[in-house]
Design goal:
Blueprint (H helix, E strand, L loop, with lengths): L1 H17 L11 H16 L6 E2 L2 E2 L6 H13 L3 H27 L1 H12 L2 H6 L6 H21 L2 H18 L2 H16 L8 H15 L1 H8 L3 H16 L11 H9 L3 H5 L11 H18 L12 H14 L4 H30 L2 H6 L4 H7 L11 H18 L3 H18 L1 H25 L4 E4 L6 H5 L10 H4 L2 H6 L7 E6 L3 H7 L3 E7 L2 E6 L7
Helix pairs in contact: 1-4, 2-3, 3-4, 4-5, 4-7, 5-16, 5-21, 7-8, 7-9, 8-9, 8-10, 9-15, 15-16, 17-20, 17-21, 20-21
């Protein structure tokens, strides 16, 4: 009965934390718009075996997450809400796994602590409000590791089969990196525990079979359709990510160390005191290996993107939960962790307050910092100030003060639990703030694309001088006019093409307007908003 109530509590908490305001602001992360557009084009073309972007093959990602987004859009319409909805289910299944897996490992109390540590850490929480792949990808890997460990511990074939299915789904979600992130920790674990962890050969074969059937499904479908080039391009891209700073996303070696330390607060602060390589045969040790390998791998990889190391959220929160669980009775050892949470919350509250101030008074940046031209244009918009932007900082600071008095009364558990819940709830108060940031960063661009889309049917909108998927998604483009990928992405060909059967428009950042008009004299600027310009061809006859 108690377990049933806990499951109901997890479901209701998930819905309260992640469902409200899910579509309150536009898709603005590069990957968010990219994947949502891929899903929209799947629906538009009716081709669910191939991922497209700008109606040409997109070979960077497999289709599983895109399928989920497409299903959501078919049910609820094409929108930011639909694009993000699959990750609300990722949150639900993640928390159910954390509780159930934690309960089997150390008991129900530990399971609940693990749930709170994950939900109450900053980046792990906020990713469930997004439309990116990683929440599902990471869930498949960590559950695959869990069942793989269970297979070695209990020697049951079903655990190997389930592990293979889950890792196959990770490959179907993001590519071969899923197998790498699973195989390396498992192999090192078995090597260091070779006297205890001798997997049965039938189990290994079961894993390989289930993994191959699931993970190879998409590649097999492409092969049957004669699309071997897509497979080749996909593999080539995966290799390039390890060798180059793709799309300009470079960074120092310690990039992910900083991201995880700050992004996984408060769990990261607590987990630091739990780092250990004993006991070797435990799931905790496997989590340690997963943390270290993932961190090392993406520190070496030249491409640095914040969510690449997001698999580490699971081992970090596991270690934090283990420390709290094992030392609940040893209040003196918890004091340091509680103090770290309070200091971190104070710092976070100050940061949120400063962001709210800047959003209400953007001239502070314009007058005191050497901002680039685009930043100056976007921050020069006359957007109404609001006290709502101070809400996140005020909420966190008030919570910090209340928890401080509990800390002084030696109620350390309340501090640790309350700190996690403060983070979880504060994400909801961030929505108005995030919406304002999105208004400044791309609100004008979305508005221009939508205005064109509402006036004209079957319109083509293309960015000039920068890359963006916003014109595709918010312009509701019906297809490309060009024959191949190179031509479809070539702005020169588009600007100079004549005899089109539909209107074509172009967008650019406003500070580049004179440069664009000089480069393409057959264009004219017909509208400007929020740091962006909208262009039409001078000889284009616009019929609504």
């Amino acid at each position: 009965m108690l377990t049933k109530k806990i499951y109901i509590y997890i479901v209701m908490t998930t819905l309260v934390l992640f469902l409200p305001f899910l579509g309150a602001f536009h898709l603005f992360d590069w990957d968010e718009v990219n994947f949502a557009e891929c899903a929209r084009e799947m629906i538009e073309t009716g081709d669910y075996t191939q991922v497209l972007i700008n109606f040409v093959p997109f070979w960077e990602k497999p289709p599983f997450f895109i399928w989920m987004q497409a299903l959501s859009m078919k049910a609820f319409g094409v929108s930011a809400f639909s694009a993000r909805l699959p990750n609300v289910f990722a949150a639900l299944f993640t928390f159910l796994f954390l509780y159930e897996g934690g309960k089997k490992l150390k008991g129900p109390i530990f399971g609940l602590i693990w749930v709170m540590a994950y939900a109450g850490s900053f980046l792990p929480n906020i990713y469930f409000h997004s439309g990116i792949i990683d929440p599902w990808f990471n869930l498949f890997i960590v559950t695959g590791l869990y069942f793989g460990h269970m297979g070695m511990e209990k020697g049951q074939l079903r655990h190997y089969l389930i592990s293979g299915i889950l890792i196959g789904l990770s490959v179907l979600t993001k590519g071969p990196v899923g197998l790498i992130l699973f195989s390396a920790p498992i192999f090192i674990f078995m090597l260091l525990n070779r006297k205890k962890s001798r997997p049965i050969w039938s189990g290994i074969l079961s894993f390989i079979l289930s993994f191959t059937l699931v993970g190879g499904l998409w590649f097999f479908l492409l092969f049957l359709q004669g699309k071997e080039q897509v497979i080749y391009d996909f593999v080539t891209y995966q290799v390039r990510l390890f060798q180059t700073k793709d799309a300009g996303h470079g960074g120092p070696f310690y990039y992910h160390f900083i991201v995880l330390l700050l992004g996984c607060f408060p769990a990261s602060f607590i987990a630091l005191r739990r780092l250990s390589f004993r006991p070797k045969y435990s799931f905790e040790f496997l989590m340690m290996l997963t943390l270290l390998f993932t961190l090392l791998l993406f520190s070496v990889v030249q491409t640095k993107i914040i969510h690449y190391s997001s698999l580490c959220y699971f081992p970090i929160t596991f270690l934090a939960a283990s420390r709290i669980f094992d030392q609940l009775e040893n209040k003196s050892s918890l004091k340091i962790s509680a103090r770290s949470v309070l200091i971190g919350l104070l710092f976070l509250g100050i940061i949120f307050t400063l962001i709210g101030f800047v959003l209400n008074q953007p001239e502070v940046i314009l007058n005191n910092l050497n901002s680039d031209a685009f930043t100056k244009d976007t921050l020069s918009q006359k957007l109404a100030p609001s006290l709502l932007y101070y809400l996140p900082g005020t909420f966190v600071l008030l919570a910090t003060i209340l928890l401080h008095f509990n800390y002084r009364k030696d109620k350390l558990k309340m501090v640790l639990v309350g700190g996690s819940m403060t983070i979880a709830v504060s994400i909801l108060t961030l929505i108005p703030l995030i919406q304002r940031i999105e208004d400044y960063s791309q609100g004008g661009h979305v508005a221009l694309c939508r205005s064109v889309q509402m006036k004209y049917k079957n319109v083509l909108i293309h960015p000039v001088g920068f890359k963006s998927f916003v014109p595709l998604f918010y312009g509701r483009q019906k297809g490309t006019i060009m024959k191949n990928e190179r031509e479809a992405m070539d702005e020169f060909n588009l600007v100079n093409t004549t005899g089109l059967n539909r209107p074509i428009f172009f967008t650019s950042k406003a500070y580049k307007k004179s440069q664009i008009l000089e480069l393409y004299p057959n264009l004219e600027c017909i509208d400007q908003e929020g740091g962006f310009c909208l262009y039409s061809k001078k000889d284009q006859v616009l019929l609504k």
